[in-house]
């Protein structure tokens, strides 16, 4: 049974950077199958980034040019480098793999 563990969240000022990690346990998984979502208070969970069927990174319009997803298949881990953070990026960030969710990691961006 897959277990996902996110880490790397924190509090930063606008314009700052954070790097999130999501590690999958229970088997060896491809990072290309892992996706990032986020959920802000009072809002629905939304897609942030993932990989398409040919391994190309995909992003929500709101984060394009600022966030970069990468993966390490040997570690069954996916990363999300977040630069030029904005207050509207404040949310709990979740990793998803095959319908499974991690516990989330909180990102707070202050103005």
Structure description:
By secondary structure, this protein is an all-beta fold. The chain has strands at residues 3-7, 10-13, 18-25, 34-39, 46-51, 57-59, 67-72, 77-82, 91-97, 100-101, 105-110. Strand 4 (34-39) and strand 5 (46-51) form a beta hairpin. The termini are far apart.
List the helices and strands and how they pair.
Layout: E1 3-7, E2 10-13, E3 18-25, E4 34-39, E5 46-51, E6 57-59, E7 67-72, E8 77-82, E9 91-97, E10 100-101, E11 105-110
Parallel strand pairs: 2-11
Antiparallel strand pairs: 1-3, 3-8, 4-5, 4-9, 5-6, 7-8, 9-10, 9-11
Order of SSEs: EEEEEEEEEEE
Strand content: over 45%
Q: Count of helices?
A: 0
| Low-confidence segments | none
Distance between the termini: 40 Å
**Main sheet makeup:** 7 strands, mixed
Number of strands: 11
Residue-averaged pLDDT, rounded? 95
Radius of gyration: 13 Å
Assign the structural class, choosing from mainly alpha, mainly beta, alpha/beta, alpha+beta, or little secondary structure.
mainly beta
Percent helix = under 10%
Quick one: overall form?
globular
